[in-house]
Design brief:
The chain has 288 residues and is an alpha+beta fold. The protein is 51% helix and 9% strand. Strands 4-5-3-6 form a four-stranded antiparallel β-sheet, covered by helices on one side. Strands 1-2 form a two-stranded antiparallel ribbon. The chain is globular, with a radius of gyration of 20 Å.
């Protein structure tokens, strides 16, 4: 299966997110872009737009780091490696978010709302009412804060429901596809294992590109994963994928270590393609 290549924007964000507060010179960004066939002019245009939007920042040395506007979603994506630590045993209750009383929002506001719900695993039960199982290690106030930080309006109604009527319960349990999730987990497990076995024998540029693309697919899966409990999703397979990703991350860091060191930016995470701020696909099933 072919892997989607990064854009100039997503490559810049992913490289800078791997630094955990560090920075890179433009020369490093240009060199990395070249590995993926991205022209220098396209990269510089993307940098200018990301600067204007506050998603990256330039320090006093002219080096670039991740900006404040990208941090909320970036923390969510980087936390994908430890996603299982965010869950507790499901007792059958649900979180519901009702957007019906919110004022009409322009398109950017609606996109932020949908993205916030998607990143926390909410799906649309009926128009303007989204829900997810209450199996996250979050209180109501913590859930509200996280959704707000990701883009949901503060005035949205959030409710914890201990019981749904039988018809709504059955409909809610069909919102997520157990078998499709399992297929995705198994495919990514096989990709990570095969790539990990290859990386050590590849030239540095090829290993950098492969670890970026393969690791990015797994990170994207777990960052967007709804973290569902059994019987809504195959929990054991998801945990296995998270463990495999942590192993692969170490191999990816080795692949990028020489490049980062040459540019004065030792990193603690593998750069991984995920288009992690605006490029995460919005879920048309969540009404906003």
């Amino acid at each position: 299966m072919g892997m989607r290549r990064p854009t100039a924007k997503s490559l810049t964000l992913d490289l800078l997110s791997s630094l955990r507060g560090g920075s890179l010179p433009v020369a490093a960004l240009v060199a990395a872009a070249g590995l993926f066939g991205i022209e220098e002019n396209a990269l510089r245009v993307a940098i200018a737009r990301l600067l204007a939007g506050g998603r990256i920042a330039r320090d006093e040395r002219g080096r670039y780091r991740l900006g404040a506007a990208a941090l909320a979603v970036d923390r969510r994506v980087l936390g994908a490696r430890r996603a299982e630590e965010r869950t507790v045993r499901w007792q059958g209750c649900w979180w519901l978010v009702h957007a019906g009383a919110l004022p009409a929002a322009r398109a950017p506001g609606r996109r932020r709302r949908v993205l916030a719900l998607r990143l926390l695993g909410f799906e649309s039960l009926v128009p303007r009412l989204a829900l997810r199982p209450d199996n996250l290690r979050l209180s109501l106030s913590e859930l509200r804060d996280e959704l707000h930080e990701l883009g949901l309006e503060r005035d949205a109604l959030i409710v914890r429901a201990s019981e749904l009527d039988a018809s709504s319960e059955a409909r809610a349990r069909r919102l997520w596809r157990y078998e499709a999730l399992g297929t995705s987990y198994r495919r990514l497990l096989a990709e990570l294992a095969a790539s990990e076995a290859r990386l050590g024998g590849l030239p540095e540029p090829a290993a950098m590109v492969e670890s970026f693309l393969v690791g990015g697919r797994a990170i994207r899966q777990l960052a967007l994963d709804p973290l569902l409990p059994e019987p809504l999703a195959p929990e054991a397979l998801r945990r296995e994928l998270a463990r495999a990703l942590r192993r692969y991350d170490r191999a990816g860091r080795r692949a990028w270590a020489g490049f980062m060191a040459r540019h004065g930016a030792p990193h603690v995470a593998t750069p991984a393609h995920g288009e992690r701020t605006q490029g995460v696909p919005l879920d048309p099933g969540v009404s906003a």
